[in-house]
Write a structure and sequence with these properties.
Peptidase C39-like domain-containing protein; single chain; 15 helices; alpha+beta; Peptidase_C39-like
Length: 419
Amino acid sequence: MPAPARLLPRLIPPLLAHRIAHRIASEDATRPLWRHPVTIAAAALALTLGAVPLLPDGDDQQGEIAPSGETTAGPRGAVGTGEVTPEMQAEIERVLAEGRTLDRADGRTATARASVRCATFDGQRYCLGFGWTNQSREALAARLETRPTFGGTNERTGDLDAEGVLARNSARSATARTDAERAELTMAAQSVGKVWMLRHEIQGVELPADFAEKHPEVSTGVDARGGFGESYPTKAKIFTSKVARAQNQTYWCGPATMQAIGWSSQGKRKTQAYWARRLGTSSAGTAISDMVRVLNNKTDYDKKKHAGPYIVLDISDFTFKQWYRLMMRHVHDYQAPVVLHPVLLKQYYPYLDDDASGHFQVGRGYDQDPDGNRKIGYFEPWDQSKFDPSEPAIERVQWRNAYKAYRANLDHFQHNIGV
């Protein structure tokens, strides 16, 4: 029996509505929604959609490929976006109020201590700039206060280092800082269910008795995977190598990483300049909190069928086995990338000609290699030969020793990752 005809047409296709929401969310203009130009344009488009074909959105889309990870069912333990409770909102306001101390901070130590402010959501601690962590506020402030050990001869590839974090915090107006921190804390509060679930699955942390009631956005019936990785296939990877491109500027590892992730999600390539604008990348680099923000706003990998809302997770209390299991969870179960956040040192990455700074890479595979050392697969945006032809070229597609990648992550002053 044929399905009955719909009485009224859908005014705006779901994909277009999704893009409109992203554009409104990504623009910082403070205007009522009904007065936003995108909203007005959408209303006009709804009246003429039947007669006029859709036009390109002007975002430098090139190189169409089929989006990866075309799945409909979410993985076991899939996570959606949670609700911000009144208690969480009060905690957000408390942390924002503490930000006034930044306006009075004088000197590096005072600025570092005022910059690191933490909120507790449902028993988990989130600290601005560092992410979800079990470390104390004092320990994190000490990391931020310590001056970088690399000198002026080392390469700078585009991660926002401690100097950059402090300079940005000092330069922002009180209003701009509050707006950015409110958005960061709200995104964190909405993802606390995922934090609990990852710590349960990866680290064996027991879930609270009322977890299912408080976090209906998290799938039930989840058990922690035991062992090192015996329950996973020996090897898995995601993403075609076509999306891997070298960064176009010395400080654009963030935009190049997002270009690969966005291209794989959307099926079309957008320029690194497009991603740099959305990330707020400056010559000082890109913050990992902005990488996660844009990944959540501009790709489909934050959906429940993949990884759920991406978070910044401090892995300083993760063993290598737990860190590697997190890679396998993301690649095999979530079919979603990991935002790797190492420091580029020759002792960990032998293809480097010089030691370099903090960095971003696209984690997209693992190989347990029973007869050798376990490996991870990633896209490397840094190509030193592009900026100094006398130095050896670096390949985009890499399969390297996983333990060295773990150590490089721990040697970064923030010790965190985007998952």
